[in-house]
Amino acid sequence: MSSSSLIVATALLLALLLEGSNAQLSATFYSSTCPNVSSIVNGIVQQALQSDVRIGASLIRLHFHDCFVNGCDGSILLDDSSSIQSEKNAAPNVNSTRGFDVVDNIKTSLESSCPGVVSCADILAIAAEASVSLAGGPTWSVLLGRRDSTTANQAGANTSIPSPSEGLSNITSKFSAVGLDTTDLVALSGAHTFGRAQCRLFINRLYNFSGTGSPDPTIESSYLATLQQTCPQNGSGTTLANLDRTTADTFDNNYFSNLQNNQGLLQSDQELFSTTGSATISIVNSFSSNQTTFFQSFAQSMINMGNISPLTGSNGEIRSDCKKVNGS
Ligand code: HEM
Ligand SMILES: *[C@@H]1O[C@H](CO)[C@@H](O)[C@H](O)[C@H]1NC(C)=O
Ligand SMILES: *[C@@H]1O[C@H](CO)[C@@H](O)[C@H](O)[C@H]1NC(C)=O
Ligand SMILES: *[C@@H]1O[C@H](CO)[C@@H](O)[C@H](O)[C@H]1NC(C)=O
Ligand SMILES: *[C@@H]1O[C@H](CO)[C@@H](O)[C@H](O)[C@H]1NC(C)=O
Ligand SMILES: *[C@@H]1O[C@H](CO)[C@@H](O)[C@H](O)[C@H]1NC(C)=O
Ligand SMILES: *[C@@H]1O[C@H](CO)[C@@H](O)[C@H](O)[C@H]1NC(C)=O
Ligand SMILES: *[C@@H]1O[C@H](CO)[C@@H](O)[C@H](O)[C@H]1NC(C)=O
């Protein structure tokens, strides 16, 4: 071997070793092993939207709840079993997260096109981007190469996923714990520009806010009256309300103008604008005044969220059924 080819060979080996120890996700991860992965996912999400306008919102939320617990590793998709205490049954997810059947349809289709190649964790990341772009939002180049966990962390899901009533400072801490900052928090909260929430998750704001016996004073009065009609005091807690009162199924920046009008649905939404002195206020104003700024920040923050502690290299596995660890 000549000395120059020895140098090249050494450099290649070094690059491989570095990749193994500090693996990065990559936009081209499946370009030779499953070149059509994005169009396959896109097609199935598009089909699902025909019968359920809400499904895109449900799918992006799965990616969020996956990434906040042990990183973006598909752990939220595992069913209960003798060895798994599922995240599906954790407090923030039970009777709330949805879209698992669509993820299974995507997996089945990918297993037929590119068997054993695409992880369930990556399916969630790709489906999130497809859902946003199909609803009129931004597109971005999804980074890929995540592998799937062989465990779930129900206790972690109970404690790491933000609750709508725990207050802005606690929620900021939960984002910070996974490396996301205040801009990420405000931008990603903008995902509440589509989808629904159950009355039980905000009804305290309508009748008895923080035990005061009165509604949350930050809710604009006509919106309060509308929400009280949708969610009567002794009604069903599972009745749904639109997270974005203006354009329920479109991905746009109206979420932020709603907050400026005191028409945010969840306590955690309105607090981004109504917490005196908070750094979040000027970010809300900036996203409200310029949708392009919001879209660019949202895409960047989705990439940031998607980078939370992925399993890569030879860690984890590529599940053949997203609901089960291989061989179980
Ligand atoms: C900032 C802290 C957050 C809190 C406290 C929060 C809380 C909630 C709650 C309580 C619901 C309603 C669930 C139900 O009714 O069953 C919801 C729905 C939703 N969340 Fe969040 N969320 C947060 C951040 C995010 C992020 C970061 C994303 C995605 C990037 C997201 C995307 C969604 C979507 C799209 C829905 C509607 C889902 C559907 O219609 O099925 N949320 N969220
Ligand atoms: C990729 O998928 C699209 C949509 O499902 C299909 O039209 C196209 O033929 C596929 N291309 C390849 C190379 O499989
Ligand atoms: C979830 O919903 C089902 C059906 O409405 C109900 O029986 C069950 O108690 C609920 N589970 C929890 C933990 O709220
Ligand atoms: C998670 O929270 C649910 C509901 O509060 C509870 O039933 C369950 O035991 C908790 N799981 C763990 C592992 O702490
Ligand atoms: C906020 O977090 C602190 C510390 O974990 C906890 O004690 C408190 O109960 C949380 N606040 C709410 C409203 O959940
Ligand atoms: C409001 O909630 C507090 C604390 O949960 C409770 O003690 C009080 O009875 C409630 N008030 C009304 C009017 O329901
Ligand atoms: C709701 O139920 C409580 C107790 O079950 C009752 O005292 C109250 O009057 C009811 N409120 C309405 C608006 O029906
Ligand atoms: C909106 O923001 C974009 C990107 O930050 C910028 O290029 C554009 O000039 C802004 N538009 C207005 C009207 O300020």
UniProtKB/TrEMBL annotation:
InterPro entries: Haem_peroxidase, Haem_peroxidase_sf, Peroxidase_pln, Peroxidases_AS, Peroxidases_heam-ligand_BS, Secretory_peroxidase
Binding, Ca(2+) 1: 66, 69, 71, 73, 75, 87
Catalytic activity field: 2 a phenolic donor + H2O2 = 2 a phenolic radical donor + 2 H2O
Record-listed E.C. numbers: 1.11.1.7
Cofactor: Ca(2+); heme b
Top-level taxon of origin: Eukaryota
Residues that hold substrate according to the record: 162
Binding site for Ca(2+) 2: 193, 244, 247, 252
Plant heme peroxidase family profile domain segment(s): 24-326
Keyword field: Calcium, Disulfide bond, Glycoprotein, Heme, Hydrogen peroxide, Iron, Metal-binding, Oxidoreductase, Peroxidase, Secreted, Signal
BP terms from Gene Ontology: hydrogen peroxide catabolic process; response to oxidative stress
Note on how the cofactor is bound: Binds 2 calcium ions per subunit. Binds 1 heme b (iron(II)-protoporphyrin IX) group per subunit.
Binding site for heme b: 192
Described function: Removal of H(2)O(2), oxidation of toxic reductants, biosynthesis and degradation of lignin, suberization, auxin catabolism, response to environmental stresses such as wounding, pathogen attack and oxidative stress.
Protein name listed in UniProt: Peroxidase
Provenance organism: Tetracentron sinense
